[in-house]
């Protein structure tokens, strides 16, 4: 059943890119500037909510990588990938909800930044949900059809991991990023091993 493996490797590579996206939210730059208490508490609220979701995305990533290294049957690959996409969809949706709940950060254009980031996160969530639906529909009885179907999904996944960082980057520019970098939960989220590779 090795025919599915090269394609699933491509899937894994694309997925690793996607995980970087959530870690854009975990401010990696650090600075000792004093931010307002308001901004620090906003950052803490968001970082605390992001951490478990970053772990969920990391676990989904690992599941797909494991399936890639095993000589798995198409049915096994389908089941694992579908579950991974569902988990990622849920995770991005939860991060979007957390940013929504935290409200706009206490910075210039905070409202716009928040609105755009939430919209982006929900959009990513919807795209992962769509990929899950596509994986579910693949024909696991026909090896070559299944491989072709996975290839198409890998291409979409690649595009998804390349796009969609903009609003998140804007959200964490300047003081927001500095405030997030101070939070323990963001530090541990951003040190997730394979997700930090772009």
Please describe what this structure looks like.
The model is unreliable at 27-32 and 192-198 (pLDDT under 50). The chain has helices at residues 5-24, 37-69, 74-102, 110-137, 143-162, 166-171, 174-181, 184-190. It is built from eight helices and no strands. With 198 residues, it is mainly α.
Features:
198 residues; mainly alpha; 76% helix; disordered C terminus
Distance between the termini: 29 Å
Low-confidence stretches: 27-32, 192-198
Order of helices and strands: HHHHHHHH
The total strand number stands at 0
Compute the number of helices. Answer: 8
Structural class: mainly alpha
Q: Major sheet: size, sense and barrel closure? A: none
Dominant shape: elongated
| Overall pLDDT metric | 79
Helical residue percent band: over 70%
Strand content: under 5%
Radius of gyration: 18 Å
Summarize the structure.
The protein is mostly helical and 198 residues long. It contains eight helices and no strands.
List the helices and strands and how they pair.
Elements: H1 5-24, H2 37-69, H3 74-102, H4 110-137, H5 143-162, H6 166-171, H7 174-181, H8 184-190
Helix pairs in contact: 1-2, 1-5, 2-3, 2-7, 2-8, 3-4, 4-5
């Amino acid at each position: 059943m090795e025919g599915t493996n090269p394609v699933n490797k491509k899937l894994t590579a694309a997925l690793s890119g996607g995980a970087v996206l959530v870690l854009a939210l975990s401010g990696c730059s650090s600075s000792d500037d004093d931010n307002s208490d308001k901004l620090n508490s906003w950052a803490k609220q968001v970082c605390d909510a992001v951490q478990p979701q970053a772990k969920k995305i990391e676990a989904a990533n690992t599941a797909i990588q494991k399936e890639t290294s095993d000589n798995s049957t198409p049915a096994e690959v389908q089941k694992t990938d579908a579950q991974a996409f569902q988990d990622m969809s849920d995770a991005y949706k939860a991060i979007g909800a957390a940013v929504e709940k935290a409200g706009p950060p206490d910075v210039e254009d905070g409202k716009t930044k928040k609105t755009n980031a939430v919209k982006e996160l929900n959009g990513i969530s919807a795209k992962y949900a769509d990929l899950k639906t596509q994986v579910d529909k693949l024909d696991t009885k026909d090896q070559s059809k299944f491989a072709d179907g996975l290839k198409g999904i890998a291409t979409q996944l690649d595009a998804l991991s390349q796009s969609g960082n903009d609003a998140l980057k804007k959200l964490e520019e300047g003081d927001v990023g500095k405030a997030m970098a101070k939070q323990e939960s963001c530090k541990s989220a951003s040190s997730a091993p394979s997700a930090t590779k772009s």
